[in-house]
Design brief:
This protein is mainly beta. A hairpin with a 3-residue loop joins strand 21 (369-386) and strand 22 (390-400).
């Protein structure tokens, strides 16, 4: 009976569905490289979550949306978007690049903050998951894949509005158990060459109550603790087409997070952590396009202040302030028809792009010290498509960082379209640089107690090479079957390993002869995996439609080192995803389910356990009494009331019931 559930779900895959059927594979544009192409031409295994998916799915945050996609694994510390680590194809959570409107979201302090998405769900137009390396196009950290979040304002920034004033409004208000309250709202106006929008989101709850292990051990006066959270973000965007060939886009905002962080990062019986994160940010894009030429400058700035209080009775809070400045400039040239004919009569298009980017990171920290580093790179991308169905994208990046020598990052991907079958393959190199936590954590804490994490300032960048081969088969227009094989070989992989202080030479605050979790370059790791995606949609009656999406992922990670590792292979070995949607008239039912098989963990002192397998499902029932603009809905998150943890010590929410209304105009 152990694997009965995944076997039953796998049996359903042949008739299962997905949102990306043949027409969408050919028409949805994605940024698998910085040169935009359709999914079928990208040569990559790409999934897209659309605005309609975001509106209808039984979820409350971006990381919950991502759970529906094969090849991606979530290790969350809490629900409702409070904090989650994201891996792609067995990567560590630090090896995934998050982008917002073509600028990086990855935090220089720690990748634990990468899913702190600072815009409302209702303002997101599209989320692209690009599986596989993309460091050539986007820089360091894009090892396992890229999650690119595009807002409505960004995707409309170069489209001129009509002469008449246009408005749009989206409001989602919900409430539920444990004093849960969520407000998610977006409003926008457009006229002629000007567009403006603003968004707001707040999610608060007193959380669930759990027994306090510290009370049982006599080290805490509180018998219980609550997993409370209070998250808010506010943003505004403006785009202007101020000349015939010019457009300018800017978005800025702020975000505040206040939440229980007990056992988020430690397994100590003394852990009574709370955390507050405040951020201010801005991003912009300036575009010039005329004829065959297109130039673009993207820039962003982000300031994050993190206050982490481990236990107020034991030590003062750690305070970290980080700044990130990013600038990317690129120029794209597309050959015209006469030029294409001179090269090859069978070419449909050919595009070239050259560009460069710079990334500056700074930190002021009570336990990590004050540091700054700058990395930069130059790159070239070439893509072409032949009329017999072959598409090829090749690229090369030269990456410079302050720790190691010059890195050469080549990549090539190809797709061959045979009509109802697309064969795709890619190979590419990628790197990841250590963040400020991996380099400097605990360096400013005197007489550091054993078993704590200690950073390594001399970390070399991780290096990896990834190969994949896959097929997208659409035997009929409403059915997709898509298997993919992938393999990643890595070296200098950064992870925390148990090391004796006598062998650590670049930290002077350790106790002699004691063991610490020391950030190290583990020499080698290999990942082999299989992704299987199936999608199907069908019109059951004149007004009833069913859509399903299903996937299975198998991942095996091996290493040549017998080290005690905290993050490598912290992913399911087997993962099954299944979504089901049925709409009939004004009623609809949506469900998202997943089943994970992974290595179990336990720590009896803090009553913590990561199970070796668990099943989760979310359910949403919706009714539109006045047509499509108004919706009343009810949701049940974790319908089976599964009690589980994905990060040892941090309990995930049990069954949670909520209801709400949505209005759009």
């Amino acid at each position: 009976m152990r694997y009965l559930l995944p076997i039953l779900i796998l049996f359903m895959l042949w008739d299962s569905p997905q949102a990306q059927i043949k027409a969408e594979l050919d028409t949805i544009d994605v940024s698998a490289s910085r040169i935009t192409t359709s999914i079928s031409e990208s040569g990559k295994n790409v999934s897209v979550i659309t605005q309609a998916d975001i509106r209808d799915m039984p979820v409350s945050s971006v990381d919950e949306l991502l759970r529906s996609l094969p090849g991606i694994n979530i290790n969350a510390r809490a629900g409702f978007g409070v904090q989650a680590d994201v891996g792609v194809r067995g990567s560590t959570f630090s090896q995934v690049m998050f982008l917002l409107d073509n600028t990086p979201l990855n935090d220089p302090l720690t990748a634990h903050f990468n899913t702190n998405i600072p815009v409302a769900l209702s303002e997101i137009a599209q989320i692209e998951l690009i599986r596989g390396p993309a460091s050539t196009s986007y820089g360091a950290d894009a090892v396992g894949g890229v999650v690119h979040i595009k807002t409505k304002a960004y995707m409309m920034k170069e489209i001129k509005a009509s002469e008449a004033l246009q408005t749009r409004t989206n409001i989602d208000i919900s409430a539920g158990q444990n004093d849960l309250r969520i407000i998610d709202a977006t409003a926008g106006v457009a006229r002629k060459n000007l567009r403006f929008s603003t968004s707001f989101r707040t999610a608060t709850s007193e959380g669930e109550q759990f027994m306090n292990p510290g009370f049982e051990e006599g080290v805490s006066a509180s018998e219980n603790f609550n997993t409370y959270f209070d998250v808010m973000n506010l943003s505004a965007a403006l785009s202007v087409n101020f000349a015939e060939n010019w457009s300018w886009y800017v978005r800025s905002g702020l975000e505040n997070r206040d939440f229980n962080a007990r056992y988020f990062y430690t397994r100590s019986i003394y852990d009574e952590s709370v955390e507050q994160i405040d951020s201010k940010w801005a991003l912009t894009a300036l575009t010039y396009e005329k004829g065959n030429h297109r130039s673009e400058i993207n820039a962003s700035y982000r300031d994050v202040n993190d206050v982490f209080d481990f236990n107020a009775a034991i030590s003062p809070a750690n305070v970290h302030n980080t700044d990130l400045v990013f600038v990317n400039a690129s120029h794209q040239y597309k050959l015209d028809t006469n030029q294409l004919t001179a090269v090859s009569r069978s070419l449909n298009y050919m595009r070239f792009m050259v560009g460069g980017q710079i990334l500056n990171k700074q930190i002021e920290s009570t336990d990590r010290g004050d540091h700054e580093n700058t990395s930069w790179g130059v790159y070239g991308i070439h893509t072409m498509k032949y009329d017999f169905g072959l598409s090829v994208t090749s690229s090369l990046r030269l990456q410079f960082n302050p720790i190691s020598d010059l890195s050469f990052l080549p990549q090539i991907s190809a797709a061959y379209d045979l009509g109802n079958t697309v064969i795709r393959t890619s190979i590419g190199r990628a790197i990841r640089e250590g963040d400020f936590t991996e380099r400097y954590i605990s360096h400013e804490i005197p007489n550091l107690t054993p078993g704590r994490n200690i950073g390594n300032p001399d970390l070399m960048p991780e290096e990896s090479t990834t190969y994949d081969l896959g097929i997208d088969w659409t035997p009929v227009n409403n059915l997709l079957i898509s298997p993919t094989l992938f393999y990643r070989s890595s070296r200098n992989l950064i992870d925390y390993a148990l090391v004796n202080s006598n062998d650590i030479t670049n930290a002077d605050n350790l106790q002699s002869g004691e063991d610490y979790f020391y950030a190290s370059n583990i020499s080698e790791s290999d990942v082999f995996g299989v992704e299987f995606i199936s999608a199907f949609s069908n019109k059951l009656t004149a007004n009833t439609t069913m859509r399903t999406e299903a996937g299975y992922t198998y991942i095996k990670t091996t290493s040549d080192q017998n080290t005690v590792s905290r993050y490598i292979a912290n992913h399911p070995a087997h993962q099954v995803n299944l979504s089901l949607s049925v709409s009939s008239g004004d009623f609809s039912v949506e469900s998202l389910s997943e089943f994970n098989v992974r290595s179990d963990e336990s720590a009896s002192l803090i009553n913590a356990e990561v199970p070796d397998q668990y099943f989760l499902t979310n359910l949403k029932l919706a009714y539109k009494p006045f047509g499509g603009n108004f919706q009343v809905y009810g949701q049940i998150l974790n319908l089976t009331d599964t009690r589980y943890q994905e990060i040892l010590g941090a309990p995930m929410p049990g069954r949670w019931v909520l209801g709400g209304v949505k209005y759009s105009l």
